Every structure is written in structure tokens, then in C-alpha cells.
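This follows on from our talk about sequence and fold. I would like you to pick a protein and set down its sequence and fold. Go ahead and set the record down below:
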Amino acid sequence: MLLAACATTDPALEAAGRLAAEGRPEDGLRVLEETLRREPDNRAVRAEFLRRKELFVAQASNRGDAARAAGDAQAADAAYRKALEWDAASPRARAGLMMLEAQARHSGLVAEAQRLVDARQPEAAGVKLRVVLAEDPRHREARALLRRIEEQAAQAASAGLGVLKASLDKPISLEFRDANLRAVLEVVARTAGINILFDHDVRADLKTSVFVRNTRVEEALGLILLSNQLDKKVVNENTLIVYPNTPAKQRNYQDLMVKAFYLANADVKQTLAMIRAIVKTRDAFIDEKLSLLVIRDTPQAVRLAEKLIAAQDLAEPEVMLEVEVLEVSRNRMQELGLRWPDQIGYGVLQGSTQSTTLSGGISQTVTNPGGTLAPGFVDLRNRTGLTTFTANPPLVLNLKAQDGKTNLLANPRIRVKNKEKAKIHIGDKVPVITTTAAVSGGFVSSNVSYLDVGLKLDVEPQVFLEDEVGIKVSLEVSNIVKEISVSGSSGNTVAFQIGTRTATTLLRLRDGETQVLAGLINDEDRALASKVPGLGDLPIVGRLFSSHKDERVKSEIVLLITPRIVRGLARPEAAVSEFLSGTEAAVGSAAARAAQAAPAQPSRPLPLPAPA
């Protein structure tokens, strides 16, 4: 009875399995959980509960991921929270909820950025979009909207349109000659409806001459400050502060920002070198493990660095190379005729003696004719034991013909990055043993090295624009021609004679174009005749006194290579490949322009303010 009870399946396990099969796994978990409350020491139920709970949490997380990818935030939230009900520490479910919250926050920021764009506030919209992209660089809507803002900003910069404030877009005409600078700026401030503050180091006796007509206030202000070696800082929406454009004042007034760039493809060291060479950034840090670049500079310089990195941090092109190598080999051999002995001797053959004992104790010695020559010298005056001999068999009829055909096909496919080398080896590694003996003798060491024999193909592709691929190809086909045995003091050493055919070329193909490389031909004809001198040269009858061997070996190697571009060379967008970069002294600053504004104000010069 005890054995039968142990063998019986627990009812809770049966119920959990049945409910899971009916599509109600959570109800099955509740059954197992209730059983564990009653029987906390039931190991079988505990193990099954943990297994099914882990499976349920994983399935719920999968449903949440699928719903989140499909854009159904409500279903994804419900799935993640269901997973957390059974495993409150599930990192996957927690991460999913955080992603949902981030997506909702990002959607709100993108919507707000769109409203700012519609309200003609692209700078504020760009700030919000950069917050989104800093957390999710792949956010499509944010990337598309920011790209549109940057394109509009590039067009606006080329047309001379500013973005400081709507009041600075007003047209203005100024005609002053040797007027006090502060008085001129006061006229500009009254026209634009803004406040202008002066640093205490701005000289009060500065004079300026300006003649502009129908020009935007912002551009006129910029030209006046630039011509007097001054600069400005925006304090708030309608207040500017003017200060001398000196390094000391720039350090006091110019805001700096820190930006971290996580590079996906570019080499972080090369990117740092580019930023230091073009942007002139001194405060920079890199982390090669994370491919992280951190810079600290002015906002204008950081914007410039963003465009440079966007133009450089592009995915490397990749190519799938389809290679077909075909080796066609044919060999024919025919050997026909009579092979006569090439030597006839006259001498003493060494025999062998065999002794046997007969019945009665009588010994009998029998001498058998020998098959080897006796050593020493022969006295030709005593012909005893001399005999005529030749090799055995004395006559051989050769009737042999061979015909062979071999086709060797290799069809590898290999994926290679741009300007990276790929190697293909199809063949064998032949061991070569090298024996080294000590000079004093007594010590012998052997070293085993391996020689690659077969097909070796080295390729290095380079992807160009217009879907073209340049390929550097090196093909080598080798085989063992024969083995060579070398005798030494420590024994025989085997060496190999290797036959090699090599081809190296550089070609340029279009995507999907197949190039055939052929002509590596090895053609050998051998004719060998073994004949009796004189008799073998007789016509017709000479065939009875000769043996002829004709052999022909011909092989050809054909290489077909087809590049297929997996990822092409991406051309950067116009907004990041060509843009204004400021001046030598102010990297990334806006260009000084004086474009005509509309509608135009009358060209009547504005009066100077009354002296205080």
C-alpha cells in the first residue's frame, strides 16, 4: 500500500496540468500555491510550482513585449503587471514597464515638440527631442522631427532668418555716423521692444557708424556688435547683455554644456581626434569599452560635434561573397608492349645449403641454387659454378590502360565587412616532421609542423557608392606531387613536393555581378619507351621488342565570384554633410548676415535719444 501511494500522482499536479492544457495556466498556479500552503514540505509540488511560475512569467513578458512592439500600451501594461503578480522581482517585466513609461513620456515630449514647431519655436522643440533621443536613440518620430527642424534651421541660416525672438524679426533701418554706441543700441532696443544691458567693461565712449536699410533687428544688432568687438548673451526672452568679446569675458558669460555620445559604429579614438581637430574641444573623455565620448563645450560647438558625429558614425558596409571554385582534372595512361630484361649476367650465384638427418643417424646435405650473386671476385679460368642469369621474370607483357576524370567543386559563402580580410581554406593539413640533432650527439628532437594543402582563397572587399564592390582576390591551389624520403642518422624523414597554382587580382564589380576567373591550366604529356636497342627501332617488328607508356594529365581551375551587398555605403544627409561652422574664434557661431526683411519700414533714419 505504501508503494502504491508513492507511485500515485499528486492530485494538485494533475489538476495543474489539466488546467494548463485547457489554456488556464494561472488557475493551475493557484491550485499549486494553495497546496503548498497546506503542505509546505511537498517537494514535488514546490518544484512543479516554481517551474510553472517561471514559465507563466516568461509567457506574460513575451505577450507584453509583443503588445509594446505593436503599439498597444494598455495590453502590454496588463501583461507586465500580470507577470509581476507572480514574480514581483522579475527584471524583464520591470524593464518592460519602465519602457512603457518611457514610451509614454517620449510620446508626450514629441507631441509637445510638434506643438512648439507649429508655434515657430524650433529651438525649444529641439531641446525636448534631444531629451527623447538621449534615452532612446532609435525613436523614429523624434529622429524624423529633429531632422526636419535641422533642415529648416539650415535653410533659415542660409536665408539669414534668426530664431532669437519674434520681436527681433522686425525690420529696421539705421543711418548713424560716429554715433555713441550705447545710444545706437538704445534705438535698436526701443525698436525691437527688448532690454539691453551692458557689462561694466564696455567703454561708454565707443562710437560706431552704421548704415543699414530694411534689415532685421537681430542681424543689425549682430553686425554692430561684431564690428566693435563685442558679443551678447541671451538672459531671458527679451533681455540681452552686451560684453567685450575677449577670452576672459567669454569664460565668464558663455554657457558650457556636457554631452555624452554613445557611438554605434565609429572608432571612439578616431572620433575624438576629429572633434579636437575641427571643433577644437579641449575638455573630452573617451571610454573604449562603452564606445563613449563625452565633451564639454559651448552649445554651438556641441551642436557642431553632433553633426560631425552623425556624419561619421555610420554602419560599416558588408558584403556577402558567393564563391564557386571548380577544378576539372582528366588523366589518361596507356602502357602496351613487351618488356625485356635490361641486364644479362654471367657469374656465380650464391646457393643455400640445407642439412637433414635421415633414419639411422645418416646426415644428408642438399645445396639449392642461389638467387643472389656471390660476394668477392670470380676466377674466369675456372668455370666451375659459372652460369648465365637475368632478372626474374625475364619477359613481361604490359597491357594497361587508365582513364580518370575528377571534378572538385567548392561553393563557400562568406560575409565580410568593408576593407576586412576573409580567408577560406578547403583541404588538408599535412604534417611535416623536422628532426634536429645536437652538435655533440646523443640528443635528437623532433618537431611537427603542418602544411596547408588544397584550396586557399583570400578576399578583401571594398564597397563603393552606386552599389559597386572592389575585391582583392588571392587564389592558391596546391597538391602533393610526390613524397620524398630523406635518410638521416635518426632514421628516414618524409618530405613533400608541393605543386602550386596561384592567381592574385583586383577587380571591381556591381552588386550581383558574377566574374569568372579561369585559365589556371596544368597540361602534361609524357611518353616513355623501354626497348631493346636496335631491335626496338625496327618498323612493325620493333613493337615486339619494346614497351611504350603514354600518359596525359590535364587540369583546369575556374573561379566564379559574386558579391552581394548586405549593407551598402550610406551617404550622409545634406544637413550633416555640409553646414556652416562659425568663425575661427567662435566655432559653431551663427554667420553674420544682413538680409532684407519684409515688410520694409520707411528708410527715414531714427533720431538719437535725447542726452540725459
